[in-house]
Design a protein that fits this description.
The chain has 14 helices and six strands. The chain is mostly helical. It has three domains: about 60 residues, Erythroid Transcription Factor GATA-1, Chain A, CATH 3.30.50.10; about 55 residues; about 240 residues, Orthogonal Bundle (Retinoid X Receptor). The two termini are about 45 Å apart. The relative contact order is 0.09.
């Protein structure tokens, strides 16, 4: 369903799920000056599929309110570059198909029959990989869950944007940005039906042992490499300076953390939804934790249910990426994401060990005591 006019959605456009009409409308009008598009109804039109053409200003305002991003509209030069890349990828696929056919002609009849059966199976599998209308509904729910997780957990007692919050101690770093990331992640996960259906003990285990690594992954969604700062997109949250990590955690952890942010950044700029799905997948990952000999990870009561829940989102991510980026690019992307998630796990463990060596439980918020394994 289109987030703007509630018509049936056709795809993921400008960072939101929309219909073709709202996609085209946003592309035509988002870059125009506010003086050009005048509201004819005092800003009170509740946009839907029946009245979406009544007032351009109200419709455009709703597009922005729902999170559509005008910076994703391609210039003519960018369109030409993208078209050239598509053509190049098409030629590469044609060459690969030609090579495959040549190889098949050189094998004997029995091998050809076996190859044909495999190709038929792959063809059926590829058909099922195409994203469905139910998949789009799930993707829209993921977007809404993430937006709600931010909306329901505003920063309290901190300055508002564009103020920068200075952090100078490990306790501040943990109790402020890390704590708010964690709270928003938990709210995000609580809106997932698969998470809500888990055993209570399994929920606690996955949250307690996986959350710190997920904080680092989530931070990539709000990181701005141009000035090394963090600020939640679309909110009046204050800015956090990345270089405060040096004073709070030391230069080595700062460099490792910043390297992870920069490694994720092109994925984030290309498609933020991929990272939001990865957060869910890694939540359901048994063993993706900061456990140690002193704090071993408990055995899940229903590991099969957790595994099945994870597979739902693994399959969804694969279908979504294959639909958007193509088969071979999806393979490259997922391999890269796995590598980055492993790097995140390492940095999360180092961070936890550093905090344990510097702070006591009394200095931390209750949730952070659990995440840092100090309670």
């Amino acid at each position: 369903m289109c987030v703007v006019c509630l018509a049936p959605a056709t795809g993921y456009n400008f960072d939101q799920i929309t219909c073709e009409s709202c996609k085209a409308f946003f592309r035509r009008n988002a870059l125009k000056s506010s003086n050009v598009i005048k509201c004819r109804c005092n800003g009170v039109t509740d946009i839907n599929v029946h009245n979406r053409k009544r007032c351009k200003a109200c419709r455009l305002a709703k597009c922005f309110a729902k999170g559509m991003r005008k910076e994703w509209i391609l210039t003519d030069d960018e369109k030409r570059t993208k078209k050239q890349k598509i053509e190049e990828n098409r030629r590469l696929r044609q060459l690969q198909n030609c090579q495959t056919k040549t190889d098949e002609e050189n094998i004997d009849n029995s091998a050809e029959e076996e190859e044909e059966s495999v190709q038929n199976a792959l063809s059926v599998q590829c058909d099922t990989c195409l994203i469905s209308s139910q998949d789009w509904i799930t993707l829209e729910k993921i977007q809404c869950a993430y937006a709600q997780s931010v909306k329901l957990n505003s920063l309290v007692g901190l300055p508002l944007y564009p103020s920068t919050r200075k952090l100078s101690t490990p306790a501040q770093m943990v109790n402020e940005p890390t704590n708010i990331h964690s709270t928003r992640l938990i709210t995000y996960f609580k809106q997932l039906p698969e998470f809500c259906e888990l055993e209570e003990d399994d929920k606690l285990t996955l949250i307690k042992h996986n959350l710190l690594g997920l904080v680092f992954i989530r931070a990539t969604l709000i990181y701005k490499p141009a000035n090394d700062t963090y600020q939640e997109y679309g909110t009046d949250d204050c800015i956090f300076d990345g270089k405060d990590l040096i004073e709070c955690y030391g230069e080595q952890l700062y460099k490792k953390s910043t390297q992870i942010m920069c490694s994720f950044i092109d994925i984030v700029e290309c498609d933020r939804l991929v990272v939001k799905i990865i957060l869910i997948i890694m939540l359901f990952s048994k063993g993706y934790s900061t456990c140690t000999i002193e704090y071993p990870e408990p055995v899940l009561k229903n590991s099969t249910q957790v595994f099945q829940s994870q597979n739902i989102y693994v399959d969804l991510l694969w279908r979504y990426c294959e639909e958007k980026f193509g088969f071979f690019n999806t393979i490259k992307l997922l391999v890269r994401l796995i590598t980055l998630c492993m790097a995140v796990e390492s940095v999360a463990k180092e961070t936890q060990q550093y905090v344990q060596s510097k702070l006591t439980a009394d200095e931390l918020a209750p949730l952070m005591q659990s995440v840092m394994h100090l309670s």
